[in-house]
Amino acid sequence: MGAGSHDATSVPVLWHFPGSHYNEKVRWALDWKGIPHRRVALGPSYLPRAWWRTGHAHLPILILSGQAIGDSTRIIEALERWKPQPPLYPEDPAALTRALALEEFFDEEVAPQIRAFFVHNLFTRSPELAVDFYGLARGAAVRRVLTVIMPGFERLYRRRHNVSAVTAEDGERRRDLALDRIEAELQPSGYLVGDRFTVADLTAASILGWGLAAEPPQLQYPLPRPSWQVEAREQIARRPAGQYLAEMYRRHRGVSMEVRP
């Protein structure tokens, strides 16, 4: 099957965690490209299923033309080949290099750290909201299971994702550095690269618009709102980076292309 062609009868299936910034990045890419798709929100038992399909126990996973693709960066690469228009990759080689470098920066040097900040504070300061967060967009049965297993789940999650008071402190610092980076990289166009929306903007907005920063109203899965986040959100909203994040969601988040079975 050539680049840009696909089976019109094949509906991609996204295995996702509704509350994750990496998953928001892929949902946004699918919606922005206008790709109808099904979504399956997996519960705590997703680890063996994910490993079985991709060899890695991580979400999101996109099943595209029968192939299971893990990792948000690889998924967007595949979507650019499968449906090139509208593009997330700039045509100019230098601009593409810059956009991909920014994608990697927000994915690798910001996202895990701010996840640690949010999750550590959620477990220690707002434990009553943990089931709401991990049970987002799931049925009552999953939420009942989460309520029972939450103490053990917390221990497992902390070990698996390196979540502690130390990494949480680093996450808060990385968040602020990421906001500084946005303000340093912003072009006169209002975008991070060139004069249009690219994978760099998609990644920055997905990672930093999720929970910790702007928490824009266009989020399709509204997160719990711990009281300890209110002041930080207000401060970020006043920054140029906060205004940029809100504008990316307002201009480009669009509507869900989820096809419900």
Corresponding CATH architecture of the largest domain: Up-down Bundle
Task: Let me know the number of strands.
Answer: 4
Q: Report the order of strands and helices.
A: EHEHEEHHHHHHHHH
Oligomeric state as shown: single chain
Strand proportion, as a percent range, falls in 5-15%
Class by SSE composition: alpha+beta
Low-confidence stretches: 1-8
Mean pLDDT: 88
Entry keywords:
globular; 6% strand; 11 helices; 55% helix; 2 domains; 261 residues; Glutathione S-transferase Yfyf (Class Pi), Chain A, domain 2; Glutaredoxin
Note down, in words, how this protein is organized.
There is one protein chain. With 261 residues, the protein is of the alpha+beta class. It folds into two domains: 70 residues, Glutaredoxin; 160 residues, Glutathione S-transferase Yfyf (Class Pi), Chain A, domain 2, CATH 1.20.1050. 55% of the residues lie in helices and 6% in strands. It contains eleven helices and four strands. The protein has a four-stranded mixed β-sheet, sandwiched between helices. The N terminus is likely disordered.
Which helices and strands, and how do they pair?
Blueprint: E1 13-16, H1 21-32, E2 38-41, H2 46-54, E3 61-64, E4 67-70, H3 72-82, H4 93-108, H5 111-125, H6 130-134, H7 140-161, H8 165-185, H9 199-208, H10 230-238, H11 240-252
Parallel strand pairs: 1-2
Antiparallel strand pairs: 1-3, 3-4
Helix pairs in contact: 1-3, 1-9, 4-9, 5-8, 8-11, 9-11, 10-11
In summary, what is this structure?
By secondary structure, the chain is α+β, with helices and mostly antiparallel strands. Helices cover about 55% and strands about 5% of the residues.
